[in-house]
Amino acid sequence: MTMVRQIKTATAIKCALPDSGAGRNPDVAELEQRAERQRVMGELAADVVHDINNLLAAVEAISRLLDMNVEDDNLSALVRRLSRSAHTGRGMTRRLLDFVHDDGNGMAEVDLAEIVENEVELLDHIVSRQISLKIETEESRTRVFADPVRVRSALFNLIANARDSIAGAGEIAVRQYVVPSVGSEPMCQVLTVADSGCGMDKDTLKKVGQRYFTTKGKGKGSGLGLASVIELANDCGGRVEIESTEDVGTRVRLILPCV
């Protein structure tokens, strides 16, 4: 049986915190500690990514110098391949740093298709070799009003969730398309990520999207990925729809109104 859930508002954890640590709810304290650990890890990750970017810049520069002084055609081709790989790696690290340093004020008119197409190479690195990644976009002149950094982050989160739901070989299908206006419903761009993973039962589906809720086990998931996708949809006046069938897979739709 396929379970369907439509989310227009992200589920929030509401609690009253005492002025001091005495008598504090242990669940709330654990959430606070987890959030602080994630903040620190985010800062450390940014430092590591920055250092990796510098190393790749050196590799790219040295490989270009080598190419200028290598006469053997076969060796020159290998050096150019090394240079291109380093350049691609630097592009990936720059995009990761964009996520970390985003100030949340980058709202603009963006095309979901363009964002998906620009991230194909990075998406290929997110999934394993056993997983087939299919990407389909629809050419249109429509735009949505959103922060492009948050949209890319949402795309990566949905792909990562789909990947983690698949044990061994499987398939992930990413599709972007436009839905015309019908009645009071505005024209929308839709980003769909469907997987052939383990799926979810009814009880789990009710909880997805709650901050810190994860099905990945302790230490394997933060429980913030899908919640951030829902928050993006809310901020843009859109919604998230989720369909899931146990042992068959899950389909998530990010629906954003066009401007």
From TrEMBL:
Domain Histidine kinase: 47-259
Superkingdom in the source lineage: Bacteria
Catalytic activity: ATP + protein L-histidine = ADP + protein N-phospho-L-histidine
SUPFAM superfamilies reported in the protein's UniProt record: ATPase domain of HSP90 chaperone/DNA topoisomerase II/histidine kinase, Homodimeric domain of signal transducing histidine kinase
InterPro entries attached to this UniProt entry: HATPase_C_sf, HATPase_dom, His_kinase_dom, HisK_dim/P_dom, HisK_dim/P_sf, Sig_transdc_His_kin-like_C
Key words, A-Z: Phosphoprotein
EC numbers on record: 2.7.13.3
GO molecular function per UniProt: phosphorelay sensor kinase activity
Name of one Pfam family that matches: HATPase_c
SMART domains reported for this sequence: HATPase_c, HisKA
UniProt protein name: histidine kinase
Organism per entry: Donghicola eburneus
Lineage of the organism: Bacteria, Pseudomonadati, Pseudomonadota, Alphaproteobacteria, Rhodobacterales
